[in-house]
Amino acid sequence: MSTLKLLLAGALCLASAAAAEVAKASAQPPNPPPGSAAPASTQQLPAAPGAGDVQACLQETGDYVTIGRAVIYVIVIANTCDKRLRCEIFANVTGAKGSSLGHTVMTLGTADSGAAAKQTYSMRVNAAGGIAQISRDCKVL
User: Fold this and answer.
1) 123 membership: H or E segment, kind and range
2) Which CATH class is domain 58-140?
3) Cα distance between residue 103 and residue 90, in whole Å
4) Where are the domains of the chain?
5) pTM
6) Tens of pLDDT along 60-108?
7) Max alpha carbon distance in the chain (Å)?
């Protein structure tokens, strides 16, 4: 009989500890994955002046293109603000057949300058597919 009471007491302790963890987890705001929209109730801190403004001005896309037997990873960056930007781009594309590194410097015109506001960088890679890691360091000219 005392073993049964001991088991029940242990089960109650575990249940109360689990309930406390659930309450603690639900009290914290959710952490959305990168690139998804933040919930409206979550308040975002203002970005540092200058650096955040530049990143908000840029739109970036990347995709694999096959030309004959060559596989190319194409990075397109467009400026949507009225500031000229100088961007240094670093790329690392890793696939089943190995890694490829790329580096370039782009000067993007203002948004109203037409084609000068959009630049393209193409780099040859070993295979289509894999993980593409792109980093950029942009400054206002």
Assistant:
1) strand 118-125
2) mainly beta
3) 5
4) 58-140
5) 0.61
6) 999 999 999 999 999 999 999 999 999 999 999 999 999 999 999 999 9
7) 85
